[in-house]
């Protein structure tokens, strides 16, 4: 009689705790970028469009570092991949010191790019790493458990901005001093985590994708495997992921501007509501996960995309609290999109799963492009800038709506 497999084994506890913490660390860093977006507008007199280049630096690093990080992980292993990611994360954080001293937006973007190369490395390594820490029947549960801490990090990031950048003793010093001190602390913490992890012994692991099927049967017929880009559901998933992260990056980048320009809030107050919107994202993932046994994931994706379009239409009208609540709720509806698009795109790829994963992860570059475009509109009306994500959610809606047909054509 088979016993129900555990989430992880006792000999993996320490490693599992360390790797799970990585999900929280990059969640903090990503949302801190949105806080910096607004702060640079005030301190460095950067326009809304140009401040969108903060997201270009962060998400652009994912496009540059995704494949090299995967190759490094394959050659040197999970542990060394994590250490490389933490090293780049810390270096980027410490570079905020000379960037602050120079009061240079370009220097800050270079520092953010290096920091984000670390984030991209950690994200590339952490997902298969945590999946390998135990029985492969529970690998999905471990990944979902770890992703919960990514949501926690996304809540913490804006709160750090509220208390250390826009409020408190450090912020009272004015200018970029609070940013410099904050990132020295962040860099020190990341360095300490890296040093501790260097002494952790990682037990032998099993890659969850080693066993894969590369033949596809329909009835009694066996079809020869198609190439990756002949799989229409995969190609559409990669496109949908690009637009998904584009919408997410733009939405978060101008949340604080919306609170300031439309609602008349201080930046600190808007940061508090930004953090609350991240709680809505965690709630959305919980609700979405609970509904998936009853509603097909592709159907739920289409429903949530349609709801996101509705939220954007309300946000763009600038109806005071009604629109602002819609902006907060938008996180609820796009919460399930990244993991759902990811899993639907990888369905039935067999041994090409890891290769397909790399291409879908590169879709994160959408977050590098879209905030700048939204910023161009936001220079005139931050509310009207939220019409643009409707394009993104429409693509995601059609991916979900057409998925059964796309997947059948890929078979």
Automatic annotation (TrEMBL):
Sequence ranges assigned to domain Major facilitator superfamily (MFS) profile in this UniProt record: 1-206
Cell compartment(s), UniProt: Cell inner membrane
Annotated transmembrane regions: 12-33, 53-73, 80-100, 106-130, 151-175, 181-200, 234-258, 270-288, 300-319, 325-346, 358-374, 386-403
Membrane topology category: Multi-pass membrane protein
Keyword DNA repair part of the UniProt annotation: no
SUPFAM superfamilies: MFS general substrate transporter (SSF103473)
Pfam families xrefs: MFS_1
UniProt cross-references to CDD domains, sorted A to Z: MFS_FucP_like
Keyword presence, Transmembrane helix: yes
Entry keyword set: Cell membrane, Membrane, Transmembrane, Transmembrane helix
Domain of life: Bacteria
Gene3D superfamilies: MFS general substrate transporter like domains
Descriptive protein name: L-fucose:H+ symporter permease
Source species of the chain: Mucilaginibacter gynuensis
